[in-house]
Amino acid sequence: MASLPVDIRVARLIVLGYAFSVVDEMTIIGACLSVQGVFTENYKKEMSTYAAKLSWANGTGSDLIALLNVYKVYTERIRQNQMRYETMWADRCGVQIRMLREVVTLVQELQYRLEYFNVKAIPMPHGVTMNDYERCIIIKTVFAGAFYPNFAAYGANDGDKEKETFRITNGRNPANTVILTGLPNKYIGPLYRKTIREIFAPCVDVSTRIEVNFDHSERIYVSFFPNRSAIDSQSATYLTDMNAEQEVLGNVLLEVYKSVKYGQIRHNHRIHVLNPGKAETYAVERGAGEVVNGAFRWKRHDELRRDYVVYPRKNHIAGRLMHVVHLHKFFIQPDEELPYEEHIRTLLNTNRNLDVVRKEHLKVGMMVAATRKFGNHAYYARARVIGNDINAKTVEVYYVDFGNTAELTMTHIRLIKQGTYVNECPIEKLPPRLLECRLACLTPTAISSVRGRWTVSTIKELTEKMRPPVDVAIDVYAFVDGVAYVTLYYEHENINEWVIAKQLAQYTDENFMVKFDHDQRVNCEKLNHEYLLDDVQVDVMVRPQEAEVAPPPENICDREITLKGPSSPLTALIYSPTRSASKKVCKVERNSVNCVLLDNDFQDYHQKMVVATHIKKSASGELSLLNTTIMPNIPGILPLMALIFCPTAEFCRNVDNTRFISILTGLGTKPGTKVPMFEEHDMQIPLDVKIDHDDIECINQLRYSISTLLLLRTGQNIPELDNNVRYKLLQKIKDLTISIVTRRRPLCERKYPPKPFVWNQCDIKPSELLVIDDVYNGASIFPFLTSVKLDVNVKSEEGGRLKKNCQDLYTIAGINRLERGGIKCQLCDTYLNDISQVRLHLFTKLHRDREKEIKFEVATH
After folding, report:
1. Which positions fall inside the Tudor domain (predicted)?
2. Quick one: pLDDT at residue 486?
3. Number of separate helices (H) and strands (E) present in the chain
């Protein structure tokens, strides 16, 4: 490491890159970090700079991977002799050519020096093989090791935070909604919809639909619906890796990230408004508003008929799977809707109800009849035009009753005549005769998806398992925003469990709105009542259109109002687990790709993790994280990374000694004392997953393998290992890392020890320590961790107490009554203050995992 002309942390990055079989990538990233200034930092064009960095990061949430991608593209351009317009390319992509040239030179110098120490990538067939998802996990693991202890955490859910998120958005989806504030209700907000949309012009594509909504507060809710979002992904969110632009992690829209960034740059937005009385008059005169019983209201009409909406009235439904987009968006036609579908088919395949139409007369959104194959035959079906390029010979349509799309020539498209009715409902106003569904309580695994989205290979496996159209059955978990959250059955097999067994998905908590609706459905089923939708849920499905009017000109406006934002309730609060930063505010530097850090999976109980190359302290005491990377969303990722790379660790047990509740990592104490050797970098990390001796054994094997690979024995300048031994060690390091981070672990409640950041605070007998002697006599880079014995069997009286408390919770939920003062869930160490909290808590993954741990079963009476 001393032979490399770079910072010690960068040298550590490269050496660990060699140990984890990604030395070429780490050498490039190390050179980029050493040169600095690869990206252009133009504060007058901060939005375009931010957008460019998002593109380079490519949905990985890492500044370092963005640097790697820049280098790869630049060197590929050199290889293909495409340097004629390199200055224009650099300006367009937000990078500096002079700095990139320096990086290329430094990479060559580093590789030359590393060659002397035999630190280089192993060629195939002896090299370690990884798929893209494994490689991303390995690369981010190396970042954690190289920049330990520059760790930060965010996103720990306490239940109330999740509920507050939906309260702030007034029940709207926070994944596609941002908020402006400062427009009182009396000023008739709908008058200024167009003005408000113009505020977001720098943040959205021209094809993105922007909905602006108001309630009786000063908040303005701005929701984004990208072109085709209702067809290609779940309502307004990207959930697959099939999109051409994969610029952000998870399911929150890119438009939300850009809007929040825009709010950071320009927090205040001025608009001109009329006084309340004049505003009402202005709206009424233009036909957008009306006064009813002395009260003003804005006009609106439903695009579809409310009384014909299809939704799951029962919890068990049989039907046909018609089309699969991905595991969170597929379409099922209930058997009870088959008569409607047959009636529509009969109507549309009668010539008297159809007319020939010219291509130039078709508009996007228009309802038409389009041919669709049914087995060996083709019939006309209802479809909406979703694409009509004047230069193309085909028109793209979306079959509203089947969920799929097609590109057709005009010979296969007909206009539906006015006055065509289905059971007294105009055919163009009849809602789709199918259910949009998603698999409930599932999310992509980190090993199967880099960006937290469903991949093409995962979708392919599902569609090969059951090729639409096929007969299926569903158990409805919840119905929210027009989407049914379901357990899917095919040929009596539970598909939710099948995708988990195939490691394509993992269990997760659903958000507050879904759990609330699930509770309502459970109640209806117990009382043998039919589940009915409220008006808010119906609005989502019928898409009511509010009247629009041009905003009043500035010259007739009476005053100027300042709007603040945009902001998102998903904005993450970051904290550092180190002692030196334990009481300080942390934030990501404004030039980072993660300067807008949103908690994509806000319903998750476990903490998420960020790694920074440096942490800078401001004059006010704030800490800024530089060159950040968001680690994979894996339960327990923070303590696992700390245990893999820490110098030493101390485990703290609960009062019953049945499990570990916290770890303290750092350099330990001075010999024979309790005085920390370097307390500023000590990290106290409460555990929110169950880490056991099997985990510690695997971590010790990994630490031993890295130490063996990099060990310098007496008199050696470079590690001298037999090639076969080296190849086996590299493969073992990769396999152990993937095994450790992808192992399923049950959740547990977070607890701190009585005295945080204090070493040797527990009086542990020597016989309780699980000590492994260092085989290299203190020369190991990562010595074995010393663990403590656990009493794995819960004491009978303690187990009985926990089971009784659990049964009490179910009894309270059943009788729907809770005494004043609330109740504590002793399993999860959580206080529940009202009956709704009790009912929703019983659905959480944390509580279900803890129930399995004590082998609790609900008593039936």
Report:
1. 361-423
2. 96
3. 23, 36
